[in-house]
Design a protein that fits this description.
By secondary structure, the protein is α+β, with helices and mostly antiparallel strands. The protein is built from five helices and four strands. Strand 3 and strand 4 form a beta hairpin. This is LAFE_0E06898g1_1.
Length: 109
């Protein structure tokens, strides 16, 4: 098992809410804006890959793919499982059910 896979597993299992993210990714910026809007940014662990070399970024994305089957940015994890991406955030926003969903997963009280 590579160090990248080990790190991906450790990150996912050690935090209730995780976002695989990169500062250069517009969808990641959007997801972070949702967390900011609802005041829950401090509850989400952001694994920021943009600080790594391009090669390491690819290795981390591949490691997350190996661990959970997804390498999209952003990928949002809840309780160790993939919750979704920005697509789910948009879907819940459009339907007017985002706040309800954030309560359901435990991000909002």
């Amino acid at each position: 098992m590579s160090q990248y896979v080990t790190k991906a597993k450790q990150i996912i299992s050690s935090h209730k809410f995780v976002q695989l993210t990169a500062s250069w990714c517009p969808d990641c910026v959007y997801a972070k804006s949702v967390w900011n809007k609802y005041g829950v940014t401090d509850k989400v662990y952001f694994f920021e890959i943009s600080g790594f070399s391009r090669d390491e970024q690819a290795k981390y994305r591949d490691a997350f793919h190996q661990v959970c089957g997804v390498r999209n940015l952003p990928t949002i994890f809840v309780d160790g499982s993939v919750w979704g991406t920005e697509r789910e955030l948009h879907k819940f926003e459009r339907s007017g059910k985002l706040e309800e969903e954030l309560k359901r997963i435990g991000l909002l009280n």
